[in-house]
Amino acid sequence: MADKTTSTPLGWLGQALLYGLFALIIGVFSNWPIYRHLAPDQALIKLSFNHQGKPVSDCRSATPEELAKLPPNMRAPQVCPRERSPIAVELDLDGVMVLRHVATPSGLSRDGASAFYRRLEVPAGTHRLAIRLKDDVRSTGFDFVREAVVTLKAAQILVIDFDPNDGGITLQ
Amino acid sequence: MNHPLRAFRLHALAGFRRIEWVFDTAFGSGQNPLRHLGALGFMMFWLLVVSGIYLYVMLDTSAEGAFRSIDQLSREPWQPGGVLRSLHRYAADGFIVVMLVHLLREGLYGRYRGFRFFSWLTGIPLLLLAYTNAIGGFWLNWDQLGQFSALATADWLDWLPIFASPLTRNFIGVDTVSDRLFSLFVFVHIGVPLFLIFGLWFHIQRVSRAAVFPPRRLAIGAAVTLLALALVAPVTSQAPANLAVAPTALNYDWLLLFVHPLTYATSPAFVWLALASVLLLLFALPFLPQPAPTPIAVVDVVNCNGCRRCFDDCPYAAITMVPHPTRSLRQLAQVDADLCASCGICVGACPSSTPFRSAAKLVTGIDMPSAPIDMLRHRLVQGLAALGEHPCKIAVFGCDHGVDVGRLAASDVASFSLMCTAQLPPSFVEYALRAGAAGVLVSACAEGACEYRLGQRGTAERLQATREPHLRASVPRERLAMAWAGAGDEPAVRQALQSLRQRIAAAEAVASVDRTPAHG
User: Fold this and answer.
1) Who among A4, A36, A112 is closest to B249 (CB)?
2) What does the pLDDT look like over B67-77, one tens digit per residue?
3) What is the pLDDT of residues B234-256, one digit of tens each?
4) The CATH fold of domain A42-55+83-171
5) With an 8 Å Cβ cutoff, is A21 touching chain B?
6) Domains of chain A: which residue ranges?
7) How many CA atoms are closer than 13 Å to the CA of B51, on its beta-carbon side?
8) ipTM above 0.85, yes or no
């Protein structure tokens, strides 16, 4: 069953060519063409937070009837809601609102943190930013506001995060 | 399958066969890489494992040290470390290419239905595992390409509503990438291959004597090609990852990382939808309406003597041996309907299939209901008789999946197409010669091209008397010819037929001289 065609010079040449083609396909497409994810004059703004909103309502005192229905060891005088406020965020770029989002709390009872991530490609240069964040449905208006003028170099990444322990909205 | 899809498949298959022919011409049918794609994939996987172990030893598995440790290897391109790093990458590219072509080829040949559905279905998850593993490998370098890939993957996964906090937040700030996250990267790149090994094992579970290593010459050729590529174009790290700066221009591996640009060019939802659609289509193919299956092999309890030859020869492990229901200390073949390929190789292996048995109806130990061996005996006798008094009758046995032997019609030729040439018991060659044939030509598929993997080898070995049941030594070999030719290669079989005619004529001439009385 030996195949004689492969032992001829033409057969060897054909094999060399086909092996070369295989190497060429792998060698070329593992490096080329160059991928430009971001245009050369663009920068990136990443807006993200992972934050637990305030409870949707105030705690209230339990009525005597409500307390009576509970086992003695569970008769807490205050009834507090589990559900947390959704978190609304707005971003203005050079006076124009470019992003508005309401992040719902995680969890079946909506008692977890609200998380959000969005990336925006913007031209490199100086920009005026205004970020507003609301994490309490009981309040009017936004609970956190930050305005800043930033100068972004090409390909620079600006991260807008939220950390209540660090003054609220942070830019890094 | 509905008509337009089948028509498209067959049209595409015709094109693919032309490419196979080109490879056949260069490599020879038996060494054609397109006929060993699965085995080549296995070989590249082991190349990845071996080179990967070395790289893991050299890798500093910390966010701080990962880039430095791998980059150091790239600075020594002619040293083992640099070569192995490049080999690792190119073997990964090769693995993916080979795997995709393997999928395409098997799909075009329609090898996703019937007894092959298990191999098809278990192969699909391997695509996901292979790509997951390949993409995860880039993260370990933690250069700009790794950074981009990790972030793009997180962007893509975050579309799924299953994460309490976006994965992208792991890369939000310079300080967020921790050594712990690198432990996850390592787990992905080492844990997933373990699943891949299990997956590959499942994939070939129903294939008897699966080829998990290519022929030596092909293995050497493929390995040398990758090694040469690693030496000529060593893989280097790009700039170190910096989460404060977005990677802009990347030397990009499109074979392994094409999904990221696709995600950004469309949307994560689109890519998820596309992925789900492709997977759904691949999974659904075996369940689409198919042509009626060929009836499977049937064991005859009376005529099966429990010799185990069908058990040994079945290419898909469809036969098991069970205790004989009536004869103590004897075994009986049992056919698993889900595994049987209806190839008939077992019939050719059965010693009871000999046509010399005197019974009016030839009943063998295991037979194909759609083409029983008794019918072949009748057809053979009638076919040779129909050639009249031609002095040089030739019986040609072919394969339904190979050259159409019906096209060889001539005044001296009686042709018989079988499910597989290995369905032919070797004793039929002798029977044909005794029944008036001057010669016998067996036309099997080209080397490595057997529809049922092992039929061609079984045919050759039985006729060469190196496998049981074998052709008896007393059968004149000059009256037997074998032709190995793929579908459509009639010229090769015609040439073998012509050559056989000449050999017979020469043998007849010698015999004639021998019969001539000597005059003193």
Assistant:
1) A36
2) 999 999 888 76
3) 999 999 999 999 998 999 999 99
4) Immunoglobulin-like (2.60.40)
5) no
6) 1-35, 42-55+83-171
7) 25
8) yes
